[in-house]
Amino acid sequence: xxxxxxxxxxxxxxxxxALFVGAHAHAQEGCRDLLGAEQMAARCxxxxxxxxxxxxxxxxxxxxxxxEALPRFARQLAAVQSDCDTPDTxxxxxxxxxxxxxxTRACATGLLCASRRCVAHPQAGQxxxxxxxxxxxxxxxxxxxxxxxxxxxxxxxxxxxxSDAAQSMRQDLHAARAACRAYNGVACGDPDLPRSRDGxxxxxVPAGVFFRGSDKAGLERGLETCRETYTAPAECExxxxxxxxxxxxxxxxxxxxxxxxxxxxxxxxxxxxxACQPTRYDTCSLFQKSSGQWKVGxxxxxxxxxxxxxxxxxxxxxxxxYCAWAGKRLPTEAEWEKAARGSKDARExxxxxxxxxxxxxxxxxxxxxxxxxxxxxSPVGHYPQNVSPYGAMDMSGNAxxxxxDYHSDTYYAASPLRDPVNTQVSTHRVLRGGSWxxxxxxxxxxxxxxxxxxxxxxxxxxxxxxxAP
Length: 469
Prior knowledge:
Elements: H1 11-21, H2 24-28, H3 37-50, H4 53-68, H5 70-80, H6 91-96, H7 103-114, H8 125-139, H9 146-154, H10 164-175, E1 202-205, E2 208-212, H11 216-229, E3 248-252, E4 255-258, H12 264-272, E5 285-288, E6 293-296, H13 316-325, H14 333-341, E7 400-406, H15 411-414, E8 429-432, E9 449-451, E10 460-461, E11 465-467
Parallel strand pairs: 7-10
Antiparallel strand pairs: 1-4, 2-3, 4-11, 5-6, 7-8, 8-9
């Protein structure tokens, strides 16, 4: 069920999606009075059942006209958007500049995905292709929440009573996900996956056993990676890795995990909703490029602030609050490792057993940013090789990630073999995954790190998980 605070903001996108997929139930959900959504959906359903693509094209053009009538449309939308912080009198300008309540982009991207069914029609094909190009141009105006609309359009398969035509539409949209990219190259999500309230794309991790931790050979490989990648290789010690053992087969129940680390864009939405604390850079440990030193407080490196970079300088409580707002939670340490490692082997890294500094954002031995050009964080999903067996990106490097577990060096020895989570209170919480400021040994999927829960660091971020039904 969609978060009630954002229900009204979905009215226009729901109506547009319903135009082409016949999802009458979607159109009825809170949208009866906006743009005649119920009547438009009923009309679409009739057209689709009659196979009249030319008339469906006319409906498509009507939708475009509604989008182009920006001032009138903007005021209607602003009047019902409970989470829009732009006054009605400023709505048209705000929409044109790509602010949060971006009706133009919402309409255009709905048009872009939904018009695909008409393209193959011999008479309507060229017209719809031209219309789609127009929609594509409109869709480039701003990020806003267009990806959520695309995921809605692509996710109609959750309706049990879909007609054959709507099922076909869903399949076409699924196959065309790459063409429906909404923001920074991130495609709309898999229609068979659930939606999270923040619109973040999820990947599925099935129930089953996996190898958690490291055996003796794994500990020695960790030491080798440390010596290969650490600035002072002679200081590397085997004792740094003993907390990874003993290796055991552990059963973990099914869950979904964010495909990417939570970005600044997503975290900012939580702040604006009043559910998250603003990022506190004044108490954050920051890397200073000019001096090459770390200091508490000050101006973060510009990369840290970019919209599609991971949200960092967040405490454990900040991360937990965000996940709760999004209807999710922080992963347990075992869930995190399974999502990164997979279940068929005991691989060292998400991509396999061989270390490669080109696969991730890490702290190179010769200095930050010398290989990948990023001094601090990098855009999520920037390294295509850095993908786990389940499709999670950046599980190694970029930013350390908070987990729900308390830290104990000896927890593995006596932990349960089914859905383990360390709830024994201690002074630290577990971090996983390595970061842009850490040597390659931290990027190993078995490596365990930790920090005080109130710690803020521009190399520490997070992602969330959602329990499977």
